[in-house]
Amino acid sequence: MFGPPRFGKTRAITYVAKQLEAKFEGHLPIVVFLCREHKYPNENVFFEEFLTTLGHGFSARGKSVEKRGRLSEYLRCMAADNPHRRLVIFLDEAQNLQPQHYKWLVDIYNDLDMSRVRPTFILVGQKELVARRKAFVIAKRFQLVGRFMVNTHQFPGLSSPEEIRVCLHGYDENSDHPAGSGWSFTRFYFPTAYVHGWRLVGQAETIWQAFMEVKKKARLPGGDELPMQFFSYSVEYVMRKYGNLSDPEPHLSVQIWKEAVEKSGYHLCGDFITAEGFPDDLH
């Protein structure tokens, strides 16, 4: 899965992981590994970082071959209690992986496969992943494509008021703020309005208009897709600054939302929010 920075890919991993845990009632082991950028790939460092992510007590001991064996065994044990012997491994910031890293991942994949554990690797990162996949295909390195890059999916931003409305519903109803209070964000910041039936979802069109006006003024490139990070920053800015304890119907104008959008820094991020240049043919 690939997309520009700040579109919410890492948060999406967290969400999907929680949904998988709920669906499989905690019986599907899930690992999220952050792929750090290194000037020179190092097998010893790679396996140590992976073990550290898993919370292994002996992540720094031994040479690379010992760490690899320790990692494979730990992952095998994680999947041992799963009746299907499955394991899901998310690799976040996977654009940082270099060809050598894929060789080491193949070793882990093969170790698990020999133990009759079926791992599913999901690579999440920026558009460099697409170029990497294309290079593997051209080089006929199908053993890598088949294990790690069978399918591709472009991670989009928010592209309509309707999608904004879905997100705002989360602030209105599907949230808990402060944690354990049983109140949503909207109820906490606008308690009187909430009791009278006011909800943030009614602001969807206004928020979309504010983003589009800021985008046009800043001459930002790309299509009409909003990065999730700037959207959430804007909503939370309005809540903190314009939250109202007594008004039964808060008056949040387009100007207020434009102020929030600009405070989020959206107008300054033209260098990376555009999805232009992503290949149309991902196969």
List its salient traits:
283 residues, mainly alpha, three-stranded parallel beta sheet, disordered C terminus
Write the layout of secondary structure elements.
Blueprint lengths: L8 H15 L6 E5 L8 H11 L10 H17 L5 E7 L6 H16 L3 E7 L3 H11 L3 H7 L12 H12 L12 H5 L1 H5 L8 H15 L9 H15 L11 H10 L6 H4 L10
Helix pairs in contact: 2-3, 3-4, 7-10, 10-12, 11-12
State the share of residues found in helices, binned by percent. 40-55%
Structural class: mainly alpha
End-to-end CA span: 13 Å
Major sheet: order of its strands?
Answer: 1-2-3
Low-confidence stretches: 275-283
Q: How many H/I helical runs?
A: 13
Strand content of the residues, in percent?
5-15%
Q: Mean pLDDT, rounded to whole units?
A: 91
The biggest sheet, with number of strands, parallel, antiparallel or mixed sense and barrel status, is: 3 strands, parallel
What series of H and E elements makes up the topology?
Answer: HEHHEHEHHHHHHHHH
Identify the overall geometry.
elongated
Gyration radius over CA: 22 Å
Total number of strands: 3
